[in-house]
């Protein structure tokens, strides 16, 4: 969520489908009474529904890859070796870096054992 006043950004806290932003209702009312507005990042950045969907999909795929690594109880370095990649590249994949292609994310998810059915579930949950 994004807290703005008079068109100026104060604080950005990203809310995804897996993480919720909670604010005390009383605090929210006080801030709104002073001219602050609680809005979404997508609304503030004027993202189209398509752009927002792409961001959510990238985050879902990145989170799934990270979850597979954590389930395997491996470091980024060890997991990257298993994927024939580097630790720094894996860190970018897990962070949802836009320089990482969807192709690379999906290829590495398949390499971790995720099948088409599970991939479809990840994609469907991101929408």
Mean pLDDT across residues: 85
What would you call the quaternary organization? single chain
Number of helices: 7
Kindly state the percentage of residues in helix. Answer: 55-70%
Low-confidence stretches: 8-18
Top CATH class of the largest domain: Mainly Alpha
What fold name goes in the CATH topology slot of the largest domain? 434 Repressor (Amino-terminal Domain)
The largest sheet has its strands arranged as: 2-1-3
Instruction: Name the overall outline.
Output: elongated
What is the number of domains? 2
* Helix and strand composition category: mainly alpha
Largest sheet: 3 strands, antiparallel
The tally of beta strands, per DSSP, is 3
Strand content: 5-15%
CATH superfamily of the largest domain, called what? lambda repressor-like DNA-binding domains
Query: Cα-atom Rg, whole angstroms?
Result: 18 Å
Explain what this protein looks like in three dimensions.
The protein is mainly α. The protein folds into 2 domains: 2-44, no CATH class; 49-126, lambda repressor-like DNA-binding domains (434 Repressor (Amino-terminal Domain), Orthogonal Bundle), CATH 1.10.260.40. Helices cover 57% and strands 10% of the residues. Strands 2-1-3 form a 3-stranded antiparallel beta sheet. Strand 1 and strand 2 form a beta hairpin. Helix 3 (49-71) runs parallel beside helix 6 and helix 3 packs across helix 7. The radius of gyration is 18 Å and the shape is elongated.
